[in-house]
């Protein structure tokens, strides 16, 4: 027995070590690969100059990362506890900030620690905080899951669950992506895991140490339900509209688990405790409401349903009340219309009120329903498109092995449930996970952004399915041939881990060998080079720029100046102004008025008509090639000779914007050049 315990502990330690190597090793290798690639790059070949200005700061992977870092920098400089407004876009007015403060606080704490411990300047400390936040969160999150699952399903099943999950979720915990998505996944998964450990409303007076058959005592189950509710409140804080869907999936899974449960002839030591769901709802609602107050007090309440709001807390609590009524009905206790029926009916009504307000209430309560934002999300933001959309389908081809592994896990689960040989607690957990997995897959078919939730739910389903199947074979409740199905699923999990590991590590190896750089990283590097070179050429005098929306957060982070447009829903005014400027027909009288009103000094435009096409579509909802060629945005991109006299190319800054950068590739023994195809204009409106 001691040898078995020791081997299990050794396997767990090995798993934690592998997680540390994955998150820490890939983060270190990514930074080293970029630095090595940059060492072979220069604006003036054939010899790289270590003093080139763009080498002074690292770049990050996407605009959201820059926005989080800018908000953190602004928070530290202000000396305040929260940041509720930013001036980085929608200049000169600025805009409200409704992002959760937690990532900002953690980035601020890490940057402060790096400053004090490493005696680093604030900019470098903030940069290092951005690089380390998500790998640290990923390691902590997956290590906690591993330790939890080792007790729930056994060490082997836990390892086969967590290692593929950690590798497949690498992008959400990427070292160059400090943002909120990893937190959303961690808190939502934490809420689901605590429910799995709670017994789902079942309690037991005797202890059972067997995996999957363990049902907690009433006191322990209550603690698990409260913990699940607290994680749910945190998930609402990080992304209310996201976790609302996850909460619906969890509630549907719990309803199916109890609706299909055969609660007749339960052993005397097992009982149903419906009030546990009330504890769950109270904990979730109370934590969500408390975090709302942390964000907004003493400001008066506002109907901002895009983010955490008391209505989400009410929805959480009332959903739990409906589940309590279902559990009470299945427990066989006498039905009390006033004590049970009224709370359940009120709970159902309250739970349906929130989605009704989001879908049919005034658009001013939910800005993504405004026409401009609807057009933006429905056509131009990749993550909001269906994975079968022709514009993005190729991106999701790499996810096919993940979908196959999830499908195999779901097939095994349905087989186990069909055999009806598993104990009630095990069947309830499998039904919950199968329902959540199926609904999250349907959400992914609707919008590709839900792909980030597939690895956690798919692999949790696989882990519990493996443990249940193995227990059934040992108890002779399942035919021995089931072992082959379990082995097939285990191999599929290992293959998915290997596939995802290869997918994420291959670009890093190519950078380390100075062969090539990932397309997105190369784009961000070129944008960083351009912006820092602009800052140096203007001697640090801030510009007021109208530039492609994807570059706006980076311009603020690198200190070039403030901007007008960005793609965030809080910046409705700035995005509208930028769209009106670019889509204005020549000679651009409306654009000139916008330039005067906002004191825009420069316009940076790509040499393609993409930004003008985007602006025109956002304003009109139509594709109009004939009208497009007569817009100011089209002239900025492709026909500068037709521009009005108040808008001319800035010949002092144009060489900086047009500068190409060359990289020497040792394996090919030649230089390769690349640049951002752009023009810059000075405004005199």
Rg, rounded, reads 27 Å
Annotated CATH topology of one domain: Rossmann fold
Please identify the top-level CATH class of one domain.
Alpha Beta
Reported for the largest beta sheet, the result is: 5 strands, mixed
Number of helices: 24
Structural class: alpha+beta
- CATH architecture designation of one domain: 3-Layer(aba) Sandwich
Identify the strand order in the major beta sheet.
Answer: 7-6-8-12-9
What's the mean pLDDT score? Answer: 92
Instruction: State the shape.
Output: globular
Question: Helix coverage percent of residues?
Answer: 55-70%
| Strand elements, count | 12
What would a concise description of this structure say?
The chain is of the alpha+beta class and 685 residues long.
Task: Explain how this protein is built.
The protein is α+β, with helices and mostly antiparallel strands. The protein has a domain at 519-683: Rossmann fold. The chain has 24 helices and twelve strands. The chain has helices at residues 2-39, 63-78, 102-118, 122-153, 155-168, 181-198, 218-238, 240-259, 275-296, 310-330, 337-360, 371-379, 400-419, 424-446, 454-474, 482-512, 519-537, 552-557, 572-583, 589-598, 610-620, 625-628, 632-638, 654-657, and strands at 41-42, 85-86, 95-96, 202-204, 270-272, 543-546, 561-563, 602-606, 647-649, 661-665, 670-674, 678-683.
Write the layout of secondary structure elements.
Blueprint: H1 2-39, E1 41-42, H2 63-78, E2 85-86, E3 95-96, H3 102-118, H4 122-153, H5 155-168, H6 181-198, E4 202-204, H7 218-238, H8 240-259, E5 270-272, H9 275-296, H10 310-330, H11 337-360, H12 371-379, H13 400-419, H14 424-446, H15 454-474, H16 482-512, H17 519-537, E6 543-546, H18 552-557, E7 561-563, H19 572-583, H20 589-598, E8 602-606, H21 610-620, H22 625-628, H23 632-638, E9 647-649, H24 654-657, E10 661-665, E11 670-674, E12 678-683
Parallel strand pairs: 6-7, 6-8
Antiparallel strand pairs: 1-10, 2-3, 4-5, 8-12, 9-12, 10-11
Helix pairs in contact: 1-4, 1-5, 1-16, 2-3, 2-4, 3-4, 4-5, 4-6, 5-15, 5-16, 6-7, 7-8, 7-9, 8-10, 8-14, 9-10, 10-11, 12-21, 13-14, 13-15, 13-16, 14-15, 15-16, 19-20, 19-21, 21-23
């Amino acid at each position: 027995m001691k040898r078995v315990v020791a081997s299990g502990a050794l396997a767990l330690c090995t798993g934690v070590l592998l997680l540390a190597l994955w998150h820490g090793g890939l983060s270190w290798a990514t930074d080293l690969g970029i630095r090595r690639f940059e060492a072979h790059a220069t604006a003036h070949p054939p010899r790289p100059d270590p003093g080139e200005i763009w080498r002074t700061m690292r770049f990050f992977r996407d605009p959201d990362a820059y926005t989080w870092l800018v908000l953190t920098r602004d928070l530290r400089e202000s000396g305040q506890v929260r940041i509720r407004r930013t001036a980085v876009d929608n200049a000169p007015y600025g805009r409200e900030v409704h992002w959760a403060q937690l990532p900002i606080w953690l980035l601020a704490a890490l940057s402060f620690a790096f400053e004090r411990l490493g005696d680093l300047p604030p900019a470098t400390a903030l940069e290092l905080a951005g690089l380390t936040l998500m790998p640290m969160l990923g390691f902590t999150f997956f290590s906690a899951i591993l330790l939890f699952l080792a007790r729930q399903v056994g060490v082997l099943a836990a390892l086969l669950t967590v290692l593929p999950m950690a590798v497949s979720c690498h992008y959400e915990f990427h070292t160059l992506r400090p943002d909120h998505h990893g937190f959303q996944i961690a808190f939502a998964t934490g809420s689901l895991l605590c429910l799995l450990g709670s017994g789902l409303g079942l309690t037991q007076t005797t202890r059972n140490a067997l995996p999957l058959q363990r049902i907690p005592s009433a006191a322990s189950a209550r603690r698990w339900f409260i913990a699940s509710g607290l994680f749910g409140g945190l998930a609402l804080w990080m992304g209310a509209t996201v976790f609302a869907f996850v909460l619906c999936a969890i509630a549907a899974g719990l309803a199916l688990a109890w609706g299909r449960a055969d609660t007749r002839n339960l052993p005397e030591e097992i009982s149903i405790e419906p009030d546990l769901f009330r504890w769950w709802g109270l904990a979730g609602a109370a934590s969500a409401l408390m975090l709302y107050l942390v964000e907004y007090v003493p400001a008066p309440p506002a109907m901002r349903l895009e983010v955490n709001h008391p209505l989400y807390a009410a929805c959480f609590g009332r959903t739990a009340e409906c589940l309590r009524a279902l559990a009470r009905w299945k427990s066989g206790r006498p039905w009390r219309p006033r004590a049970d029926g009224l709370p359940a009916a009120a709970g159902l009504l309250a739970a349906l009120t929130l989605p009704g307000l989001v879908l049919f209430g005034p658009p001013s309560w939910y800005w993504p329903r405004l026409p401009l934002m609807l057009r933006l999300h429905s056509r131009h933001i990749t993550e909001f498109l269906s994975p079968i959309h022709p514009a993005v389908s190729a991106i999701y081809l790499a996810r096919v092995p993940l979908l196959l592994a999830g499908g195999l896990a779901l097939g095994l689960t349905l087989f186990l449930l069909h055999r009806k040989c598993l104990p009630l607690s095990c069947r309830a957990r499998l039904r919950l996970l199968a329902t959540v997995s199926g609904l999250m897959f349907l959400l992914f078919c609707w919008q590709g952004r839900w792909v980030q939730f597939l690895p956690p739910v798919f692999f949790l389903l696989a882990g519990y399915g493996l443990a249940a199947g193995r227990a059934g074979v040992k108890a002779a409740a399942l035919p021995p041939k089931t072992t082959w199905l379990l082995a097939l699923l285990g191999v599929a999990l290992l293959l998915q881990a290997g596939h995802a590991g290869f997918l994420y590590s291959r670009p890093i190896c190519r950078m380390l060998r100075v062969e090539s750089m990932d397309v997105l990283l190369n784009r961000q590097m070129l944008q960083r080079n351009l912006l820092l070179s602009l800052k140096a050429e203007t001697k640090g005098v801030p510009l007021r720029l109208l530039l492609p929306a994807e570059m706006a957060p980076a311009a603020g982070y690198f200190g070039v100046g403030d901007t007008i447009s960005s793609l965030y829903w809080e910046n409705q005014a700035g995005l509208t102004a930028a769209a009106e400027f670019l889509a204005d027909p020549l000679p651009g009288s409306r654009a000139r008025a916008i330039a005067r009103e906002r004191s825009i000094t420069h316009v940076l435009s790509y040499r393609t008509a993409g930004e003008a096409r985007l602006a025109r579509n956002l304003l009109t909802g139509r594709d109009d090639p004939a009208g497009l060629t007569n817009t100011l945005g089209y002239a900025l991109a492709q026909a500068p000779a037709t521009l009005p006299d108040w808008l001319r190319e800035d010949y002092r800054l144009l060489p900086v914007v047009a500068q190409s950068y060359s990289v020497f590739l040792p394996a090919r023994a030649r230089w390769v050049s690349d640049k951002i195809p752009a023009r810059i204009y000075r405004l005199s409106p």
